[in-house]
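Key result, reporting period 2: structure in, sequence out.
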C-alpha cells in the first residue's frame, strides 16, 4: 500500500489529555464503521484491528448496521468515552456531518477513512485517507469506452446514491460517458452497494432493456450480483462486466477469462488511517489528505496482483 500526501495541517493543541497519553500504548482510538455486511467494510475493520495490535493502542470499534442515526449515536458515544482520536468510515453522505462537527467541537482528531470526502469546504476533519473516487470513476469510464470501441449500450449500477463515494465516482464517470457520443446508457439503477439487490436490478434490466453490451457497477459486490443475473439469463457470453474496489472474488472472476473483465483496487487496508490517528492524537502535524493507490486490474496484471490469502 502506498500513499501520497497533500499539505500538512496541525492537529489539536496539546492539552492535559494529550500529555497524559504521550505513550502510544496509552492511546485509545475509536473506529466508527457504517456497516459490516460487505467484505470491503469487514476488511477495513480487521485491518485496523491488526494495525492497532501491532502499534499497541486500544481500539474501540462500533458498527452502525447501515443506519445513519445509529452512526451518529455511535460517534457521540466515542466522544463521550474520551477516545484520543476517531476514525470514521461512513456511507451516510451529509447525514454524518453533524457528527463530524461534534468531534471537532470536542477537540478530538477526526480521520475520515474509506469514505467520500465532504463536498462542503467548511466541514471539519483532521485528515482524509482514501483512494480518489473521482479518479476511479473516470478511469472506469475510460476503460469501458475503450473496450466498447466508443459504441454500444451500457447499464450502470450505482451504490447508495446519497453517499459521497457514489457521488464522487459518478462525478468522474459521467463526463467520460458524455464525451463518448456512441455510448448509450441503456439503464441505471441503485443497488445499495450489495450483491442481491444488484442481481435483482440487473434481472429487471435484462427483461426490459434490449440490447445491453456492458455493465458497469460502482463496486465489485454489485458487479458480482450483476454477473449472477447474467449467468441466470444465459447472457454472460455477450455482455462484459466491470466493477470497482478490487475484491478478491472479483480478481478470481477476472482470472477465469469470463465476462468480469476489470476492477480498480480501492484500498481497504486501514493501517495508514490508524497511523495518522495515532500521530494526530499525539499532537503531531499530519497531512490534510492522504490519497491511497488505486490500481486498475484486468487480464494483463491479475495474476501478479491476486493474493489468495487476502482478507478482501
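The corresponding designed sequence is given below.
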Amino acid at each position: 500500500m502506498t500513499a501520497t500526501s497533500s499539505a500538512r495541517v496541525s492537529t489539536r493543541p496539546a492539552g492535559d489529555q494529550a500529555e497524559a497519553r504521550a505513550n502510544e500504548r496509552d492511546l485509545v482510538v475509536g473506529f466508527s464503521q457504517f456497516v459490516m455486511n460487505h467484505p470491503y467494510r469487514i476488511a477495513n475493520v480487521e485491518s485496523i484491528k491488526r494495525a492497532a495490535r501491532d502499534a499497541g493502542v486500544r481500539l474501540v470499534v462500533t458498527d452502525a448496521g447501515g443506519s445513519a442515526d445509529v452512526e451518529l449515536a455511535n460517534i457521540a458515544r466515542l466522544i463521550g468515552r474520551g477516545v484520543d482520536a476517531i476514525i470514521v468510515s461512513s456511507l451516510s453522505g451529509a447525514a454524518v456531518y453533524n457528527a463530524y462537527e461534534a468531534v471537532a467541537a470536542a477537540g478530538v482528531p477526526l480521520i475520515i477513512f474509506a469514505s467520500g470526502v465532504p463536498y462542503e469546504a467548511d466541514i471539519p476533519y483532521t485528515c482524509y485517507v482514501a483512494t480518489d473516487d473521482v479518479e476511479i470513476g473516470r478511469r472506469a469510464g475510460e476503460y469501458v469506452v475503450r473496450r466498447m470501441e466508443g459504441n454500444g449500450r451500457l447499464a450502470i449500477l450505482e451504490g447508495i446514491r446519497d453517499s459521497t463515494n457514489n457521488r464522487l465516482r459518478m462525478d468522474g464517470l459521467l463526463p467520460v460517458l458524455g464525451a463518448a457520443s456512441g455510448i448509450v446508457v441503456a439503464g441505471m439503477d441503485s443497488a445499495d452497494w450489495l450483491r442481491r439487490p444488484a442481481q435483482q436490478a440487473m434481472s429487471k434490466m435484462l427483461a426490459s432493456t434490449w440490447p445491453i453490451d456492458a455493465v458497469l457497477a460502482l463496486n465489485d459486490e454489485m458487479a458480482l450480483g450483476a454477473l449472477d443475473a447474467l449467468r441466470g439469463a444465459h447472457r454472460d457470453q455477450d455482455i462484459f462486466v466491470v466493477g470497482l474496489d478490487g475484491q478478491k472474488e472479483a480478481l478470481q472472476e477476472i482470472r477465469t477469462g469470463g465476462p468480469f473483465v476489470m476492477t480498480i483496487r480501492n484500498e481497504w487496508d486501514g493501517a495508514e488511517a490508524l497511523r495518522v490517528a495515532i500521530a494526530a492524537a499525539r499532537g503531531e502535524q499530519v497531512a490534510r489528505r492522504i490519497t491511497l493507490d488505486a490500481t486498475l486490474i484486468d487480464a494483463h496484471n491479475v495474476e501478479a496482483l491476486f493474493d489468495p490469502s487476502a482478507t478482501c
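Residues 3-130+267-292 form a domain with the Rossmann fold fold (CATH 3.40.50.2300). The radius of gyration is 20 Å. This case is discussed further under Risks and Mitigation.
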